[in-house]
Design a protein that fits this description.
Structural class: mainly alpha
Number of domains: 2
Largest sheet: none
CATH class of the largest domain: Mainly Alpha
Strand content: under 5%
CATH topology of the largest domain: Growth Hormone, Chain: A
Helix content: over 70%
Shape: globular
Radius of gyration: 21 Å
CATH superfamily of the largest domain: MFS general substrate transporter like domains
Distance between the termini: 24 Å
Number of helices: 20
Order of helices and strands: HHHHHHHHHHHHHHHHHHHH
């Protein structure tokens, strides 16, 4: 296969694989928490702290993504990120609090640069008329990685548990297996290194804390990017609130069993996978990314308001249908959003623009769960808290309903 065709056909599968491995690394410790936390003498509340710590690190390291891409190239940057995540998983698997904290930070540091690197690759290799669909397919790696962690880690824990496994009950072995998955993803990306990293500048400056503000300044200096970043903060709050509190809503407000609630959660994640592909295809076919996002925000508002209606007597089929649609919108928006960001700048600025916008996206992930939890506690109802998410979404509607800046023309 000629080099050009190899790059065109190989970039999307590799970026999807890297995204899935990085996402699985983030969620694997949370799935293994029942085995990992007793060895650390911590309660289940520590899972929320772990997620916040990971995304704090990702929020910072995503700003280094553009600088790393310039110096190493997008493939090498992705490989280093996966190696960092693998090292973090090994540390999290150790029954020591200091190692677990360091591991969480490493997983977050590895997660942050993955999306800027993939945006650089896809912006350079994807025809403009397919941007939204291709970026959306790549972003299915997030729920796919979550599904992989949910399917593999419990089985690995059972397989590894036995005499001599120690206090962590097979937790380290499970984390080591997921680390191996990250390293496999890094190895499979290697054939694209000579082609996609050919334009790197080994003499480019190393990322510094002072330079971290560069991508944010780029985003804040352009009206279109600034609007997208502000919308992503709100949308990420809605997404992480749904994924973090959905099971609690089903068990506490509706009285479902934990097994049934877990199955419903998987259905919503599946809706996110289908939604990411469908919305990307739809955006490329006519309305464009901004109008598609506007429709998704309106759908999120409707679903959130509907979450206040079910009770213990509501037919399960109706609840499942609501969660599938809510998941398709609240989990499915990311690819359309990233394609909109990439199309507003020249291809060589795609990594920096993506990194700057991700700072605000991850900020929403960090702030969302505690804020939503406090709101739900004050209201005494998770359903009402979901309904009140319509208020910040109104701000996103106001932004997306305005005329959007023209996208950058590409050859």
């Amino acid at each position: 296969m000629p080099a050009g065709a190899f790059v065109r056909h190989g970039t999307l599968p590799i970026t999807l694989l890297v995204q899935a491995a990085a996402s699985a690394a983030v969620l694997a410790p949370a799935v293994a928490a029942p085995r990992l936390l007793p060895a650390l003498q911590l309660g289940t509340a520590a899972v929320g702290f772990y997620i916040a710590l990971v995304y704090l690190a990702a929020m910072l390291s995503s700003q280094w993504g553009a600088a790393l891409v310039r110096r190493w190239g997008p493939i090498r940057s992705s490989q280093v990120s996966l190696a960092c995540s693998a090292a973090g998983l090994l540390l999290v698997g150790l029954p020591h609090i200091a190692a677990a904290l360091a591991g969480a930070l490493l997983i977050g540091l590895g997660y942050g640069p993955v999306t800027p690197a993939s945006s650089d690759m896809l912006a350079r290799t994807t025809p403009p008329h397919r941007h939204a669909l291709v970026f959306s397919i790549k972003q299915t790696g997030v729920p796919v990685g979550g599904a992989l962690a949910g399917m593999l880690v419990p089985g690995l824990l059972v397989w590894a548990t036995g005499p001599g496994t120690g206090a962590a009950g097979g937790g380290f072995q499970a984390m080591a297996a997921m680390a191996a998955w990250c390293l496999l993803g890094a190895a499979l990306a290697q054939p694209l290194h000579p082609l996609l990293d050919a334009g790197r500048d080994p003499r480019a400056a190393w990322p510094t804390f002072r330079a971290m503000a560069g991508p944010v300044r780029l985003v804040w200096g352009q009206a279109g990017l600034r609007q997208m970043a502000a919308c992503s903060l709100v949308l990420s709050v809605v997404q992480v609130s749904l994924t973090s509190f959905m099971v609690s809503w089903l068990t506490a407000d509706l009285g479902w069993t934990l097994v049934a609630a877990g199955a419903a959660s998987s259905l919503a994640q599946g809706g996110g996978v289908v939604g990411r592909i469908w919305w990307g295809w739809l955006a490329d076919r006519g309305p464009g990314a901004a109008r598609t996002l506007l429709g998704l925000v309106l759908l999120m508002m409707a679903c959130g308001l509907a979450m206040a209606l079910p009770d213990g007597g509501t037919r399960p089929a109706l609840v499942l249908a609501l969660l599938a649609v809510y998941g398709a919108s609240a989990i499915g928006w990311n690819g359309v959003y990233l394609s909109s960001v990439a199309r507003q700048v020249p291809p060589q600025q795609a990594a920096a623009a993506t990194a700057g916008c991700l700072f605000f996206t991850y900020l929403g992930v960090v702030l969302g769960p505690p804020a939503f939890g406090l709101l739900a506690g004050a209201l005494g109802s998770l359903g009402l808290a979901f309904a009140l998410l319509a208020l910040p979404l109104l701000g996103a509607v106001a932004v997306l309903a305005r005329p959007q800046p023209a996208t950058v023309r590409r050859a």
